[in-house]
Each structure stands twice: as C-alpha cells, then as structure tokens.
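task queued by scheduler; priority normal; single chain, no ligands, no partner chains; default sampling; output format set to structure tokens
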Amino acid sequence: MARKKRDSLQQIAVLPYRFRDDGDASSIDVLLITSRETGRWVIPKGNIDSGQTPHGAAVSEALEEAGVRGRTEDRVIGHYRYHKYRTRDHWDIADVAVFAMEVTHELGDWKEKTERKRKWFPRAKAADRVSEKQLKALILEYRGER
C-alpha cells in the first residue's frame, strides 16, 4: 500500500549548545538526544501546547527531553523539515522552528531520562550524527551567541 502524506505539522525545537574552553569564541559543542522510537540522534523538539508561546514550548521540551536549562532568545535561528511517521501508511511533514539555548544547567534527573540518552558533540560531529539535511546545515552554520 502506498504511503499517504497528511498535513503539515508545526513544531518547535531547541539547539542546546555550550562554548568550549579552547580560546576560540566560535567553538561550540551541541547537545544531542536520542529519539524514543528509533534511537536516532536529534535535538529536543515537540508540539506547542495550548496557551504556550513557541519559545516557551521550546524551553519546556529542552527541560523535559534533555534535562537542560539555559539562556534563550525568543527569536528563531532557523527551520528544518522532516517526515513524521504516524502509522505504517501515513506520515506528516513537520516544519520545525528552532531556538538556540546556551546551556547553563544540566539536571541529573529529568522527565525522560530513562527514555533517552544525551551527549555533547563538537558542532561538526553533531551535524554528522543527525539525519535531516536542513538540521545538519543549521548546526554547522550556528556559531553561538554571547
């Protein structure tokens, strides 16, 4: 049976980063987490709940999925698209707006700790680990904000 495309789904995500102590102001590490279903490396993302702003939803996803808090701006740094499979025969195109978060706190315990792994990667290695081409480009282009 052929797969059928559904509507476009609007989601938000956080690109969690930290500056490296190597003297280069543009050297950053990116925190990736594993997806629950496939174990692929991704960034924290999700839907915007009723009553939330996109920025607020992104901050909530970072805490819930990756157990991190930090400094974020309420402006989007980029977008990417991916196929979100709903059933064997149906999928959505998800349009994801990405906010950057300079991580200041990593919690030892968080809501999805038992469901996901998290790991810091140098920016180029993080880009190699994710599947979505637009997300790879966004990671490679982002230099962090001070």
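post-processing summary
- Strands lie at 4-19, 28-34, 41-42, 45-46, 68-72, 78-87, 90-106, 118-122.
- Helices lie at 54-66, 123-129, 133-141.
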